[in-house]
């Protein structure tokens, strides 16, 4: 079901690079406190009729401090920390949120309805919303 909306990030979301796979980040999110945030950037392309994904980069963060939350809520931009070398850039995205974390092998099925061009990129974000729940978000850059 296509329920995607247009989302505009007014500032980037910064992360520390990590070698962890999507499934490892999902397991970590399940053990983390609310606010834990991870993202994996994939490129996608069609090989014939098959959608192929290739992991490009990944990052994670432990959530925002109270001071950073105040800055965001007042419309400001949180400064990048020295160890944050990966980001979801500011800009417009086609955005979809799922209340479950599928295995990496199930990503193609979720991405397929939005992969309208022959190739593109997608950020897969995992966010720990509460002590009991993590969600997955797909962010397709609108270029």
Total number of domains: 1
* Rg: 15 Å
How large is the share of residues in beta strands? 35-45%
Encode the helix/strand succession as letters: EEHEEHEEHEE
The CATH topology is Multidrug-efflux Transporter 1 Regulator Bmrr, Chain A
How would you sum up this structure, described in words?
- The protein is α+β, with helices and mostly antiparallel strands.
- It has one domain (5-141): Multidrug-efflux Transporter 1 Regulator Bmrr, Chain A, CATH 3.20.80.
- It has 3 helices and 8 strands, in the order E-E-H-E-E-H-E-E-H-E-E.
- The protein has helices at residues 22-31, 66-73, 107-111; strands at 5-9, 13-17, 37-47, 50-61, 86-88, 91-98, 119-128, 134-141.
- Strands 1-6-8-7-3-4-2-5 form an 8-stranded antiparallel sheet.
- A hairpin with a 2-residue loop joins strand 3 (37-47) and strand 4 (50-61).
- The two termini are 23 Å apart.
- The model has no long low-confidence stretch (mean pLDDT 90).
